[in-house]
From TrEMBL:
<keyword id="KW-0457">Lysine biosynthesis</keyword>
<dbReference type="InterPro" id="IPR005263">
    <property type="entry name" value="DapA"/>
</dbReference>
<dbReference type="InterPro" id="IPR013785">
    <property type="entry name" value="Aldolase_TIM"/>
</dbReference>
<keyword id="KW-0456">Lyase</keyword>
<feature type="active site" description="Proton donor/acceptor">
    <location>
        <position position="141"/>
    </location>
</feature>
<dbReference type="InterPro" id="IPR020625">
    <property type="entry name" value="Schiff_base-form_aldolases_AS"/>
</dbReference>
<feature type="active site" description="Schiff-base intermediate with substrate">
    <location>
        <position position="169"/>
    </location>
</feature>
<keyword id="KW-0220">Diaminopimelate biosynthesis</keyword>
<dbReference type="Pfam" id="PF00701">
    <property type="entry name" value="DHDPS"/>
</dbReference>
<feature type="binding site">
    <location>
        <position position="53"/>
    </location>
    <ligand>
        <name>pyruvate</name>
    </ligand>
</feature>
<feature type="site" description="Part of a proton relay during catalysis">
    <location>
        <position position="52"/>
    </location>
</feature>
<comment type="pathway">
    <text>Amino-acid biosynthesis; L-lysine biosynthesis via DAP pathway; (S)-tetrahydrodipicolinate from L-aspartate: step 3/4.</text>
</comment>
<keyword id="KW-0028">Amino-acid biosynthesis</keyword>
<keyword id="KW-0963">Cytoplasm</keyword>
<feature type="site" description="Part of a proton relay during catalysis">
    <location>
        <position position="115"/>
    </location>
</feature>
<keyword id="KW-0704">Schiff base</keyword>
<dbReference type="InterPro" id="IPR002220">
    <property type="entry name" value="DapA-like"/>
</dbReference>
Amino acid sequence: MTSTRKPGPFGRTLCAMITPFTASGALDLHGAQQLAAHLVAEGCDGLVLNGTTGESPTTTDEEKARLITAVREAVGDRASLVAGVGTSDTRHTVELALAAGKAGADGVLVVTPYYSRPPQEAVAAHFLEVADASELPVMLYDIPGRTGTRIEPDTMIRLAGHPRIVAVKDCSYDFLGTLKVLERTELAYYAGCDEHVLALYAVGAAGCVSTVANAAPAHIAAVLAAYAAGDTARAAGLQLAVTPLTEAMMGAGLPGTVTAKALLARLGLPAGPVRAPLLPAGPETADGLLARYEALPAL
């Protein structure tokens, strides 16, 4: 039996897209357009630009806007574009949200302010100010392992009352807290950890924002499509089959940006170098990533 769940506001299979650079480290807009078109053709109905995997800490505001415009030109209306705009400064975040709208984004991804570790009242005020200022729908990004601050479930429930706060990218590693918010709100949850794609979808999430989808978009899309079609055994099998690649990309001690770019380069897709302070993956790591990719089952 097929699923009758309400579709998510930004699609189902979103890729946290890397930002391609040229060999000299400049923004590669042509490469970004090629990669975006490839990802959409392989099953992604949404792309998250300028996020963590997109190296947002080391791209300028101008580069961020140019990337959104270029990718919009490449994919048209075939995929939603969600722009990462989160910073540790509320005023700057608002500026980026407004610029993302002008550049062609369909929504904004706003991470918890980091480093300053604001208390929950300040966290809520930050998100509400961004949502009030922007006309775009907002996806909250809960990733305390990076920011140092959780969006507590009670705070999430409160924020769900804002008409433009519509979704969550969940990297909380708190499944019980996530279930609490899912049960009490209409927020569309997206699994931000690739190992949770199927588990979260099975309890009512809208889909995923996947880093592994940079290299294996069709396989990530197939996991969710199989479950939605009622073939839970196939969905589970596909999730398990992609686990070795997920572990190699996300659990081997290197940032997903580094591993994704190393694997994309081996696959002949636009990627380019990472920007400092990140360092590129070594040849042995790239070889291992390629081996895990080549072991994926045919679809």
